[in-house]
Amino acid sequence: MVFAEIPYKARIELKDKQVTVRGSKLLLDKVAALKAQYGNDPHKWPQQRVGSGEDILINEFIMKANFEFKFCYNHEELCHCRNVPTEKVFTSIKNECFKVEDVSRTTLAGTGCGSCKKDITDLIEQFKKS
Q: What span, in angstroms and rounded, lies between the C-alpha atoms of 92 and 31?
């Protein structure tokens, strides 16, 4: 099983060669369009140009299906001062926090010594480009 999710908000899952989607109408429409154009196999779907959190979620799903997904930051905890996990920062990016200040406001990452702000910026840029 392969999945990508924004906890309590959206999830795309591949199980037994079936793709299921839960989330916003925008997400449902985007996945339906990919299925209509490229088929039910996410290995054949192209990555999306990022304009929303849904696009980041779809790209995460496609990369995971192709075993290409990885963070540019390789530690479980991104902000050591505030004990903020990397996954929590990534979730905030999928929730459309596309600036360091927005990530800091929603996760507290980067509000201690500030040394992790570059890592936050790198994650934002990695997934906005994907």
A: 21
Global confidence as pTM = 0.89
Q: Which helix (H) or strand (E) holds 15?
A: strand 10-15
Residue 99 CA to its chain's centroid (Å): 15
Could you give the residue ranges of the DSSP H alpha helices within 2-129? 25-38, 53-65, 86-94, 100-107, 117-129
Closest CA to 115 of 69, 70, 90, 84: 84
**Topology, domain 77-129:** Arc Repressor Mutant, subunit A (1.10.10)
CA distance 23 to 5: 9
Average pLDDT, stretch 44-64? 95
